[in-house]
Amino acid sequence: MLEAVVASDFHLCGLDKHFIDADDRILAEMDKVYQYAVKNGIKYVIMPGDLSDSPDMGWDTYSKLFLFFKKYDGIIHSIYIAGNHDFGDIENTSMNFLHTLSKHKALKTLSIYLKPERVVLEGVPCNFLPFPCLKTLSKSEGAVNFAHVEYSGAIGDNGRTLKTKQELETHPNDFTVSGHIHQYQFLEKKRAVYCGNPFQKNFGESLPKGFIHIKAKMKGKTVDFKHTFIENKPNFTLVNLHIEDINDFRKLKNDDSIRYKLHVADGIVIPPDLLIQYPNITGGIWLNGKKASGAEHEIEEKVLADSHIDLKTGLKDFLVSNGFDKSKIKAARKEVQEACNFLGVS
Question: Count of CB atoms within 10 A of residue 37's CB?
Answer without folding.
Answer: 24
